[in-house]
């Protein structure tokens, strides 16, 4: 049976929108002059972030998705990362931006980055909306981060808890109500 919980707002929809505008500005500067930027979203948690981010990018953009195994339906991260769904398009010689929801232990994004780098893209950069540096197990930092957050379990803005709460417009922290 699932435990009862409430969600406390941590980052408002307005703050997220403002931060994405600033990030898009930096990404634009980094990829200025590109003939095409392949924006790769990591399914499923990045789907809201990538939708808002690409609409702030005034660059020729292709959108693709990749899915890697992560938490299953629980709160525990797994160290073994497998590719469950690969890209549809080719990235050899192309500029690529990998878009992730959260860097937690770092295993997922570092694995996917190595995996895609082996296909010889021209430039490859990474962006994560959220970063939990306190949880890191591998030495990895995204090129751009939206917000650094403490070691808390968060939901909303595409991010789930057991496939729920992805549709919240803000980032909220899960708080179990059966705890003292
Ligand atoms: P990592 O491999 O440990 O860095 O985990 C990355 C993935 O774990 C993210 O893409 C999320 O899918 C998931 N994850 C990490 N922290 C949270 C959280 O607080 N809420 C929901 N999912 C999370």
UniProtKB/TrEMBL annotation:
The keyword 4Fe-4S does not apply. Its EC number is 2.4.2.8. It catalyses: GMP + diphosphate = guanine + 5-phospho-alpha-D-ribose 1-diphosphate; IMP + diphosphate = hypoxanthine + 5-phospho-alpha-D-ribose 1-diphosphate. It comes from the Bacteria. It is an enzyme of class 2 (transferase). It comes from Loktanella salsilacus. The keyword Methyltransferase does not apply. GO terms for molecular function: guanine phosphoribosyltransferase activity; hypoxanthine phosphoribosyltransferase activity; magnesium ion binding; nucleotide binding. GO terms for cellular component: cytosol. Residues 14-161 form the Phosphoribosyltransferase domain. Keywords: Cytoplasm, Glycosyltransferase, Magnesium, Metal-binding, Nucleotide-binding, Purine salvage, Transferase. Gene3D superfamilies: 3.40.50.2020. Belongs to the purine/pyrimidine phosphoribosyltransferase family. It is found in: Cytoplasm. Its cofactor is Mg(2+). Pathway: Purine metabolism; IMP biosynthesis via salvage pathway; IMP from hypoxanthine: step 1/1. One of its GO terms (biological process) is GMP salvage. This is Hypoxanthine phosphoribosyltransferase.
